[in-house]
Amino acid sequence: MIETRGLAKRYDGFAALAGIDLVVRPGEVLGYIGPNGSGKSTTVKILTGLLPSFDGEARVAGFDVRDAPTEVKRRIGYVPEQAQLYDALTPLELLTFVGRLHDLDERHAHRRGAALIEAFGLHDRARLRIGSLSKGMKQKVLFCTALLHDPAVLFLDEPLSGLDVNAVILAKELIRQLADAGKAVFYCSHVMDVVERVCDRIVLIARGAVVAQGTFAELAERAAETRLEAVFSQLTGGGGEADQARRIVSVLRETAS
Amino acid sequence: MKESGSTVVRTKRGAATRDRPPWIARVLITAARRVAPPSRAFGIEPDKLVALLELRFALDARATRSLAEGRTGVSLGQMLIGALFIALFTTIVVVTVPTAALAVGVVSTALWLAIPTMLLGAWLDVLLDGASESVIAPTPVGDRTVLAARLLFLATYATATVGAIVALPLAAGVLRHGLWPFLPIGLVATATSSVTAVLLLLLAFLVLARVVPGDRFRVWALRAQFATAIAFPLAWQIVPRLLPHLGESVPHWVLLAVPPCWPAGLASWCDGEVVPLRGLRTALTFVVPLASFACALALANRRFVAATASPQTESHRPAPFAAGPIARFCARVGSDPDERAGFEFARVVTLRERSYVVHTMPGTILALVLFGASVFAMDRDMVSTPHWVLFGLLPLLLTITLPTAIWTTRATESPEAAWLRDVAPYADDRALRSGSFKLLLVRWCAIPSLCALAVCSVLGSWRGALFSAVSTLAAFHLDVLACTLLDVRHPFRAPYSTDRLNNAAPSLLFFLHTLLVLAAGAGLLVAHDAPIVLAVGGVALSALAPLRWRALRS
Q: Computed from CA positions of residues A89, A94, A97, A98, in that sequence, does the dihedral angle turn out positive or negative?
């Protein structure tokens, strides 16, 4: 479903990605984790056809991302990390609009959008402006837009941001059931607990390159740790956070007037 | 009711509105549906084109013109006011020039000035749609369809604006030069100049998207704004000097390089003066837009749409925060540390935002007004007003655009704006806002006023200085009035707030403000040869000035 070979991207001479190889099969949830600025969002933007220039090869749902981005977009759903929505529209209007862009009939898009909004518990907000919704509600609207056309591949970039506890539980369950229905899920997150529980395999990147990949059990065994958080810290050169915190506190003391 | 950390209130603003698109939009959408099959030949998907158009018009009808909602544009109503301002100057020149060919060239010049300036300044947010990256870009909609929808939307604005610019000059030109060949050639010039200006600008953007990295595209687009803002007023100075060559038997080669001169060649040709180079100019009138369209179609690719959807707006290397000696001196207009902080913060924010309106618009308007004044000064027998009066009115006329600057400057945004909430959570936000207003007043009022005062003093000695001083004081009072009315800190106290009247509010305010400015200008023109009236008025306005200055904080 998703396959990359030597995927690379440079910004102003800075290598955001330096040759990523990965495969995601149908029915699989891939956890894609890494420190801030390691290249997660860049990878997602390339695979969703949003970044047209890159090096290496990338195929999604059987289509080359560089040559056939429109065909790729027909088959993917995308929940971005930081979404700027059309705040003057209502969630139902947005979903109907997005449905039309996905070649759904207007009535069909409206009906399915209303059903998804209902399912996400937003029915009483369906006719309010998106600008008046909370961050978590906007995130649910984004989930609806990603699922509206029943895509074969889902890209989720920090999808739990702003969601309350019940919504996080719902999202985890949803991701699992979508994978069970045969969809490939590419899941980026900093929430290690969720990655550990939901993902079939995990790819850990740092400075634009893959540091480790495998199931959680394999990664834990390699790092001799029992929690993904500890594995992450060890493989990405973390540690020393307690000293760092002490330095911050000492700066406050030293600069106190 | 509270939910997930934010207050969701069923206010008028939060409720979904059922705005119908304007009639021109409905006509366009119907036309787009009808011409669906041919558009496929150009790689445009008609159903999606209609969907995108409906979205654009719905957003425009509901937009509050707030930066918080990602809008930085100016409404159609405000644009039309600016267009009428240009139309007035153009009409004066059209009735003054001796031949129909010259008059057509003048109309064409007005369009070549206005359309790119408006496209780059006021309508750039249509081209650079930040939300499209999250909503439209991940969907299977072709880039040509996205581009066509944006162009069609812009075309409705451009059509209305072009109509406002050319209606009066064409009517006046018919009275002065007769129906044939002025009217038909004038209409052809209007159509070709508008379309060519839009297409050439689009072509420039497309080329820019090819040569500049996508994430820096917006920065370069803003740099292009600066360049255009300087180039077009310069063209206003150059083109009138070239136009008289149109009547000569051997046309100057430079005329071939100046687009407004092309349709004027057509007018000369219709008059029976068949010269090969005039034929070439006529051919350029029609060939350039067609060639631009073909090139634009060839270049409209993924890179362009991806670049214009990118949220990157700021330079990677922001302008330095440290204030220079002039800025430090000007900051003293703040009466306390909070006001001075607001002044300083507004300075840095406006500097780093690279806002077209704040940085370039004063210069553009100043150049326009100077051009208008130079038309009078070229002894065209239109008025017998002294030159110092025309220069003395500059600060007053400049205030027409000040409300736009206030409205589109993040520094004076609502208290929900990040800089007030996060950066200065314990400061007096009223004082900070007042300091921000004062920065704009210094930039938009004080500096041009001092320039005008100096010129008037030279041209008209003590009478010119007196006139300019009164004009400056009138401008100051109108500026403060604009700040007070547009103070979104108290949306339900401000009489023309967006929350109360939604999208019509800014247009109404700008319209009223413009009327006040024009009324004040007319009053000053009438009183320019009555020094006693000017002196009394000046004393009264000076006495009220400190009260108005303090009112900024209340």
A: positive
